[in-house]
Amino acid sequence: MRAHLARRLARAAARNGTGAAPARRRLATASTARPTTDAVALDLSTTKALTCHNMMCEHVGEPCGCRIAAFLERRRFPRLETLSLRGAGLRAVPDAVLRLPRLRELDLSSNLLLEMLPGDLAALECLEELDVTATALGDLPTGLFRLPRLRRVKADAQLLVAPAGWTVGEGALERTGGGRWGDRAKYAGALDRV
Q1: Looking at the whole model, is its pTM more than 0.85?
Q2: From residue 176, how far is each of 12, 101, 145, 173 by CA, in Å?
Q3: CA–CA separation, 32 vs 130, rounded Å?
Q4: Total domain count for the chain?
Q5: Is 113 contained in some domain?
Q6: Host domain of residue 144
Q7: Cβ of 121: how many Cβ atoms within 10 Å?
Q8: How far apart are CA 192 and CA 98, in angstroms?
Q9: Please, what sign has the CA dihedral across residues 29, 73, 123, 176?
Q10: Structural domain includes residue 128
Q11: Which of 150, 151, 170, 147 lies closest to 160, judged by CA?
Q12: Is 179 left (phi over 0), alpha (psi -120 to 50) or beta?
């Protein structure tokens, strides 16, 4: 009986273009450990898989921040450097984003309901570029400009108020070459190359 079932599974897998072995392996290795992925760039702006299906949620039928957070927490992305959450319908930045140790580029643009960035954005020490255009942000947190490697912040015109050590460019704030934080960013980059 078992051999018959195994043959049927193999035939069905062959018809579908998938192997039966991976399914068996997945059952055999299921554990409490979270899977890791070596992805360096991730674009969650166009995926339909993060559409909310919870009828009790106010975001049903739309991309949902809780689904995005669950996706990022379910998997580990130790090497992720670029994350696009463009137009994901976020009201807040998921905490899981703040636990991406190597994140260099973060695109939060076109999240029309995003009114505030988290205060603990300083956890993203490797962040170099941030895009918050077309959001409902009233201001940028001052702690944002203390990030050692941050060099460019794309934002709407009303947010383009340059703190010390920064200049207003074309639709963005850019760190000037010198100054306390600029030197720290160069030093941090030199340490990475050693």
Answers
A1: no
A2: 61, 25, 12, 9
A3: 34
A4: 1
A5: yes
A6: 36-151
A7: 20
A8: 21
A9: positive
A10: yes
A11: 170
A12: left
pLDDT in tens, 162-171: 899 999 988 9
Domain harbouring 94, CATH code: 3.80.10.10
pLDDT tens, residue by residue, 49-66: 666 766 676 666 666 667
105-107 β-sheet, strand order: 41-43, 82-84, 105-107, 129-131, 152-154, 172-175, 166-168
Residue 121 inside a domain? The answer is yes
Task: Name every residue whose Cβ is closer than 8 Å to that of residue 1 and which is 6 or more positions away in sequence.
Answer: none
Look at the block and give the residue holding tokens 């959001």. 135
- Cα end-to-end distance, the chain, whole Å: 61
- Positive/negative CA dihedral, 193, 119, 67, 44: negative
CA-CA distance, 162 to 22, in Å (whole number)? Answer: 53
Residue at 99 is within a domain? yes
Query: How large is the C-alpha radius of gyration of the chain?
Result: 21
Three-state DSSP string of 26-60: HHHHCCCCCCECCCCEEECCCCCCCEECCCCCCCE
**Residue carrying the six token digits 């360096």:** 40
Give the span between the Cα atoms of 110 and 87, in whole angstroms: 5
Q: Under a CB-based contact definition with an 8 Å cutoff, are residues 83 and 44 in contact?
A: yes
User: Residue ranges of the alpha helices (H) in 20-167?
Assistant: 20-29, 65-74
